[in-house]
């Protein structure tokens, strides 16, 4: 299969704002995401949706949600397109000044998460939750949707009960279905954000190649890579680097203080690196000096397995068909793990959607897809990852892709044909 080829100058321009070239249009990005959510909301019986999940909040507001203490920010989207956002006093004050596209920003009452947990009294928790629900009901009344069903993107029973005490009818399943459908197909600007974060990860890979030497600790090399990611304006919310025997199986502590030695395999996983909120998942393997024949063969197996999967991904294909290209139980080395079924091999060989979260629709995996298939659609974005042991070490390789009309466009561009050799 021929993979999608970008047109001249299509994709991955600079990270700064300029007036002499069309780059990511952040206003268009916000508008198109909100419109996708609204279109799907209007197809339901919901009058509004309440978002507590950070990625959903960012999807409709554009606010930089990077986690918090739990429900100290939440957002209401009505079927008319009105947005009410609640946040902590400091954040809300900044948002009122910096986010002119949002016209109704209120102070949040943190009814879920760390604040009520730390309060130490049920009466305090009840007060916070009921006050949060009261504020939401008031906003719904302000915008004329209080008498209709409210979609909620979390199934917290306490929150749902508090909202129902305010006379609101709630629906979690429909809300989550709306947002899953809205977010699974990416706009052009979203795809460009993913291209951009892939290019930033490649700057990190180059730093690893330049910096790593025998005697350096994994933590030192990873620190240099993270410095480079931040220098390019990325958000670093995860990732790790391991070497030698820490590469197989994945080390539970991720990056350690182990010194890298000649002959080691080294792999870096740039996962959850963000650009404008869009998350990467991008593996590459290095060898400290020329790899052995065993290491070359392991890498070739992992790479071929990966590309066998990529060649099956196209609109209309189903995830059960594609998953058959991933290794069977023997290829998964199930005997090494003492595993009996693919569902026990989570994260070893699979493809998962990418966007404002690390895991989005679709998921392609032998542990799930054969009995629960879904159809691949044009505009879906995902990361596809494989691995293979090489003696007491292991290799991993992963590509970030977007589904095009007749196949996939590979967003990641670090050389994949062979292991990257680090000379020393």
From TrEMBL:
GO terms, molecular function: aminopeptidase activity
Gene3D superfamilies on file: Creatinase/methionine aminopeptidase superfamily, Creatinase/prolidase N-terminal domain
Protease is among the record's keywords: yes
Keywords of the record: Aminopeptidase, Hydrolase, Protease
Keyword Hydrolase tagged: yes
Domain Creatinase N-terminal: 33-183
InterPro entries per UniProt: Creatin/AminoP/Spt16_N (IPR029149), Creatinase/aminopeptidase-like (IPR036005), Creatinase_N (IPR000587), Pept_M24 (IPR000994), Peptidase_M24B (IPR050659)
Domain Peptidase M24 as annotated: residue spans: 192-405
PANTHER family per UniProt: AMINOPEPTIDASE (PTHR46112), XAA-PRO AMINOPEPTIDASE P-RELATED (PTHR46112:SF2)
Protein name: Xaa-Pro aminopeptidase
Species annotation: Natronorubrum texcoconense
Highest classification ranks of the organism: Archaea, Methanobacteriati, Methanobacteriota, Stenosarchaea group, Halobacteria
């Amino acid at each position: 299969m021929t993979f999608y080829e970008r047109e001249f100058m299509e994709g991955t321009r600079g990270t700064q704002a300029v007036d002499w070239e069309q780059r990511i249009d952040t206003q268009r990005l916000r508008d198109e995401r909100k419109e996708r959510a609204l279109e799907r909301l209007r197809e339901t019986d919901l009058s509004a949706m309440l978002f507590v999940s950070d990625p959903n909040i960012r999807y409709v507001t554009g606010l930089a949600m990077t986690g918090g203490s739990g429900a100290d920010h939440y957002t209401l989207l009505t079927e008319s397109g009105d947005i009410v956002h609640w946040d902590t006093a400091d954040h809300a004050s900044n948002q009122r000044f910096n986010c002119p596209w949002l016209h109704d920003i209120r102070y949040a009452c943190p009814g879920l998460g760390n604040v009520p947990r730390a309060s130490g009294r049920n009466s305090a928790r009840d007060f916070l939750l009921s006050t949060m629900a009261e504020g939401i009901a008031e906003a719904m009344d302000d915008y004329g949707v209080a008498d209709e069903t409210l979609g909620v993107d979390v199934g917290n029973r306490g929150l749902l009960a508090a909202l129902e005490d305010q006379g609101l009818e709630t629906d979690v399943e429909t809300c989550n279905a709306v947002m899953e459908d809205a977010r699974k197909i990416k706009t052009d600007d979203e795809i460009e954000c993913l291209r951009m974060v892939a290019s930033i990860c490649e700057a990190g890979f180059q730093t690893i190649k330049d910096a790593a030497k025998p005697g350096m600790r994994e933590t030192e090399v990873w620190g240099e890579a993270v410095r480079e990611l931040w220098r390019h304006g990325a958000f670093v919310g995860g990732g790790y680097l391991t070497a030698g025997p820490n590469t197989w199986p994945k080390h539970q502590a991720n990056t350690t203080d182990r010194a890298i030695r000649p002959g080691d395999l080294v792999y870096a996983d740039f996962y959850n690196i963000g650009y404008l909120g869009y998350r990467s998942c991008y593996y590459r393997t290095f060898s400290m000096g020329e790899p052995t024949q065993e290491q070359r063969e392991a890498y070739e197996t992992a790479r071929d397995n990966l590309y066998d999967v990529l060649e099956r991904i196209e609109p209309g294909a189903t995830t059960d068909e594609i998953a058959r290209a991933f290794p069977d139980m023997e290829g998964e080395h199930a005997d090494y793990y003492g595993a009996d079924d693919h569902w026990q091999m989570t994260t070893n060989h699979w493809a998962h959607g990418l966007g404002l979260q690390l895991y989005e629709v679709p998921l392609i995996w032998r542990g799930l897809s054969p009995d629960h298939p879904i159809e691949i659609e044009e505009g879906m974005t995902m990361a596809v990852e494989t691995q293979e042991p090489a003696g007491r070490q292991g290799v991993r390789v992963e590509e970030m892709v977007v589904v095009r009309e007749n196949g996939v466009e590979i967003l990641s561009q670090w050389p994949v044909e062979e292991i990257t050799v680090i000379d020393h």
